[in-house]
């Protein structure tokens, strides 16, 4: 049996998530997971939270578990996930970090996410070690004189702010006299991004910039629907840029100066383009699900592309391994290795402001990047047939250009289709892109029908 079969999986792609005060995410669960994390990490641990109503409770429970195993706790309070990660990265002799956050999920959810000692999202094999300890109950027990203590670390936010601002050409931003509208989604970004805009000399107004775990403004996923108020504000107020974070501010979505909501691929492409121009080329990493506009923008600037499986830890690790100059996901998660190897919402905001200040209006930058139409669909498929579906599809696509990095991606002259079995549901997702909406739909529907035929056979 593999480790996966022995250890029921707790950690998803972004930590452990659950509805608060159910057995999957209550104080007993958090304490036990804290004991498993403490047993694994052994040394001092930085902990921080987003602004959810349950975050203090879960932090106290998780920290108590880790202290029981002898870990010292450094409590960074409420801050964005990337600010906690940066603090872990730069603090000597820290074993790792814990973030209490459910990112963009509705307010009744919360989660526990682990950070490796270098500040990156925890690698899957380390999560598996923690899961094994959690289920076995084989916790390290500290004696009375070894019990961990907890102290406040109030340097995490100021240090993070200094580091983000130091990487931006603040003089160029000041001279451009930009006006920016910022929607913090009542999340942890409110603790940093307004301060960064101030220090860059940007004139700005905010929406939902108070920390409020009830998310009274809108839910904390930066979808077009949740960004409606921001879009209106940018249109009416004549702002140069709109910025919206998700709940823990590792992701940022932008609204252009004409009030157009920009899908994450567009900002990823623009940031990648200028990273390549400034570095005289270089490698950019993204997932197989990102739009071809990213590759186009990178090639226009003399850079090279690498595509990985879906998931930001996978992108970050590929960037480290291959020395990439930039990377990210199509959902607004941008990774700037000059700061750190994780998605960083405030750094994304600062960098895009700098790009607009130096290179012109967002509408002009957008016009430079080719646009494609995308189409998403899905079809049901029992878990036990998923491998067979991919195998049969790949056999019938022998004469096509195929990429098997994650599921199966078929590349055509005028687009592509990605067929990926879901990791959590009995469905196969089909996602296509082409130069027209009709063509994107045609490609995706052809493959959806093919998958359904294989499943029904
Ligand atoms: Mg997030």
Detailed description of the structure:
This protein is an alpha/beta fold. The protein folds into 3 domains: about 5-155, Alpha-D-Glucose-1,6-Bisphosphate, Chain A, domain 3; about 160-365, Alpha-D-Glucose-1,6-Bisphosphate, subunit A, domain 3 (Alpha-D-Glucose-1,6-Bisphosphate, Chain A, domain 3, 3-Layer(aba) Sandwich), CATH 3.40.120.10; about 375-455, Alpha-D-phosphohexomutase, C-terminal domain (TATA-Binding Protein, 2-Layer Sandwich), CATH 3.30.310.50. The chain has 16 helices and 20 strands. The protein has helices spanning about 5, 25-40, 55-70, 80-90, 125-135, 155-165, 170-175, 195-200, 230-235, 265-280, 290-300, 310-320, 345-360, 360-370, 385-395, 435-455; strands at about 15-20, 45-50, 75-80, 95-100, 110-115, 150, 180-185, 205, 240-245, 250-255, 260, 285, 305-310, 325-330, 335, 375-380, 400-405, 410, 415-420, 425-435. The strands form 4 sheets. The protein has a 6-stranded mixed sheet with strand order 1-5-4-2-3-6, with helices on both faces. The chain has a 5-stranded mixed sheet with strand order 8-7-9-10-11, sandwiched between helices. A 5-stranded antiparallel sheet has the order 16-20-19-18-17, with helices on one face. Strand 9 and strand 10 (about 250-255) form a beta hairpin. Helix 10 packs parallel to helix 11 (about 290-300). The chain starts with a helix and ends with a helix. The mean pLDDT is about 95. The structure holds magnesium ion (MG). Magnesium ion binds near residues 246, 250 and 251.
């Amino acid at each position: 049996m593999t480790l996966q079969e022995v250890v029921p999986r707790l950690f998803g792609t972004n930590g452990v998530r659950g509805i608060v005060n159910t057995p999957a995410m209550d104080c007993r669960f958090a304490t036990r997971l804290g004991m498993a994390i403490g047993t694994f990490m052994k040394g001092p641990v930085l902990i921080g939270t987003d602004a959810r109503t349950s975050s203090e409770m879960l932090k106290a429970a998780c920290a108590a578990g880790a202290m029981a195993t002898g870990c010292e706790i450094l409590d960074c309070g409420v801050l964005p996930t990337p600010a906690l990660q940066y603090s872990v990265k730069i603090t000597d002799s820290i074993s790792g970090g814990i973030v209490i956050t459910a990112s963009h999920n509705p307010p009744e959810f919360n989660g526990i996410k682990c950070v490796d000692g270098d500040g990156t999202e925890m690698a899957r094999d380390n999560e598996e070690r923690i899961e094994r300890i959690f289920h076995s109950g084989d916790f390290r027990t500290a004696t009375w004189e070894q019990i961990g203590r907890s102290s406040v670390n109030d340097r995490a936010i100021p240090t993070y702010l200094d580091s983000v601002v130091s990487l931006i050409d603040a003089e160029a931003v000041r001279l451009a006299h930009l006006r920016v509208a910022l929607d913090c989604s009542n999340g942890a970004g409110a603790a940093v991004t307004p301060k960064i805009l101030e220090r860059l000399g940007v004139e700005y107004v905010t929406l939902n910039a108070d920390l409020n775990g009830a998310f009274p403004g809108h839910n904390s996923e930066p979808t077009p629907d949740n960004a409606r108020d921001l879009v209106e504000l940018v249109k009416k107020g004549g702002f140069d840029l709109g910025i919206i974070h998700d709940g823990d501010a590792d992701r940022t979505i932008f609204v252009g100066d004409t009030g157009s909501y920009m899908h994450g691929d567009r900002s990823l492409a623009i940031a990648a383009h200028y990273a390549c121009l400034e570095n005289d080329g270089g490698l950019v990493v993204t997932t197989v699900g990102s739009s071809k506009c990213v590759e186009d923008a990178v090639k226009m600037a003399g850079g090279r592309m690498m595509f990985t499986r879906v998931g930001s830890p996978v992108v970050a690790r590929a960037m480290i391994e291959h020395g990439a100059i930039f990377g990210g996901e199509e959902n607004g998660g941008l990774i700037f290795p000059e700061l750190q190897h994780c998605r960083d919402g405030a750094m994304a905001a600062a960098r895009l402001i700098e790009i607009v200040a130096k290179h012109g209006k967002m509408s002009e930058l957008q016009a430079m990047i080719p646009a494609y139409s995308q189409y998403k669909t899905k079809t049901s498929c029992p878990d036990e047939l998923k491998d067979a579906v991919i195998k049969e599809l790949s056999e019938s696509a022998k004469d096509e250009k195929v990429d098997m990095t994650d599921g199966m991606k078929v590349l055509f002259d005028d687009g592509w289709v990605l067929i990926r079995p879901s990791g959590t549901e009995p469905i196969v997702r089909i996602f296509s892109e082409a130069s027209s909406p009709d063509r994107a739909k045609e490609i995706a529907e052809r493959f959806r029908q093919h998958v359904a035929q294989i499943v029904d056979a």
